[in-house]
Amino acid sequence: SQKIEQNSEALNIQEGKTATLTCNYTNYSPAYLQWYRQDPGRGPVFLLLIRENEKEKRKERLKVTFDTTLKQSLFHITASQPADSATYLCALEASNYQLIWGAGTKLIIKP
Amino acid sequence: KAGVTQTPRYLIKTRGQQVTLSCSPISGHRSVSWYQQTPGQGLQFLFEYFSETQRNKGNFPGRFSGRQFSNSRSEMNVSTLELGDSALYLCASSLDFGNTEAFFGQGTRLTVV
């Protein structure tokens, strides 16, 4: 069956360290994968998109990798700050442009 | 420019009633998608509209329906509400169908009692 999985447990990281979140999928061949941030009571906010022919994408302190062989994307936040605390969602493009979403990983950055 | 606007923000309904939620996309965006989000679940895709036509539909019962108007505004309707329909309903707009980046509204929190 088709699945997209993110770490269900909260990730606790010390301020200043690099946070790494994982998104694994099975039985999909997405043309691209996206990462979003969601704060409590609010809608998700787009962060980064990476296409199947791209290995890595960067935006300021954010970096995303996409390994289509492993069927995995890693999302990194370097020099993490308490303000980075949120739930991070990955979404991949399934058939007919429909986005399929992971359940999200809650990231907690401790001062 | 103004973001995606969803109304109402909060709603309490009784089992068996019906409800209509509204979404105004970003000006110029022609694609509107609807999602249901419950605690511990990822966003569950309901449907996507583009140029007043439903282009994609998720795996939800027929009680869930939607439409899009010529100005790209969209509504979704849930009939015969069940307790399990309690959720955050999110609307996202995109420039075009199949476009990459989705812009979300703040959602409508529906509680069915």
Question: Could you explain the architecture of this structure?
Answer:
The complex is a heterodimer of chains A (about 110) and B (about 110). Chain A has about 110 residues and is an all-beta fold. Helices cover about 0% and strands about 55% of the residues of chain A. The model of chain A has no long low-confidence stretch (mean pLDDT about 95). With about 110 residues, chain B is mainly β. In chain B, the strands form 2 sheets. In chain B, strands 2, 4, 5, 6, 9, 10 and 11 form a 7-stranded mixed beta sheet that branches. The termini of chain B are far apart. The relative contact order of chain B is 0.33. The chains are: A mainly beta (about 110), B mainly beta (about 110). Chains A and B meet through strand 5 and strand 10 of A and strand 5 and strand 10 of B.
Reconstruct the topology from this structure.
The complex is a heterodimer of chains A (111) and B (113).
Chain A: E1 3-6, E2 11-14, E3 19-26, E4 32-38, E5 45-51, E6 56-59, E7 62-67, E8 72-77, E9 86-93, E10 99-101, E11 105-110
Parallel strand pairs in A: 2-11
Antiparallel strand pairs in A: 1-3, 3-8, 4-5, 4-9, 6-7, 7-8, 9-10, 9-11
Chain B: E1 5-7, E2 10-13, E3 19-24, E4 31-37, E5 44-50, E6 53-57, E7 64-68, E8 74-78, E9 87-94, E10 103-104, E11 108-112
Parallel strand pairs in B: 2-11
Antiparallel strand pairs in B: 1-3, 3-8, 4-5, 4-9, 5-6, 7-8, 9-10, 9-11
